Amino acid sequence: MDNINFFSEDIDFSLKKEDQIAIWLQRIAEAENSSIEEISYVFCSDDYLLKINQEYLDHDYYTDIITFDNRDNPEDPIESDIFISIDRVTENASDQNVSFELELKRVLAHGLLHLIGYNDKTEEEQQLMREKEEAYLSLQIN
């Protein structure tokens, strides 16, 4: 899966089972009739992601994920940089009483689902996004 890459910035973090997770993400895209040109997932700290949020989105708050769609046309194969705060994922996993690994996979899928076209601004959109996340988490490779 050379088209899905994982990096870390400003933290010491490496994803376990990278190849299996890349295959799982590819399967999500295929199930949604989408294709992936290239996705770079970048794992970072809260502070690193806050700076991105402030600089590029003019938001001044912590978040778990920021997804940049690098395509000119949404119909093109997915090209994206996705930044994920490991600090937020850790805290959210604790708050939701789930494992760090499960919460990280949910966030990985969440970013991809945004690129596929799902939103989460309204309650209805949030519900559909959660249903999609749960469905794809049940298909995950362990």
TrEMBL record:
InterPro entries associated with the record: MetalPrtase_cat_dom_sf_prd, YbeY, YbeY_CS
Class of the enzyme per the UniProt entry, highest EC level: hydrolase
Principal cellular location given in the protein's record: cytoplasm
PROSITE patterns hit by this protein: UPF0054
EC number(s) recorded for this UniProt protein: 3.1.-.-
GO cellular component, one term: cytoplasm
Keywords, alphabetical: Cytoplasm, Endonuclease, Hydrolase, Metal-binding, Nuclease, Ribosome biogenesis, rRNA processing, Zinc
Cofactor binding notes: Binds 1 zinc ion.
Highest taxon of source: Bacteria
Subcellular compartments: Cytoplasm
One GO BP: rRNA processing
Gene3D superfamilies, per the entry: Metalloproteases ('zincins'), catalytic domain (3.40.390.30)
Co-factor requirement: Zn(2+)
UniProt: Zn(2+) binding residues: 110, 114, 120
Family stated for the protein in its record: Belongs to the endoribonuclease YbeY family.
Function: Single strand-specific metallo-endoribonuclease involved in late-stage 70S ribosome quality control and in maturation of the 3' terminus of the 16S rRNA.
Protein name: Endoribonuclease YbeY
Gene designation: ybeY
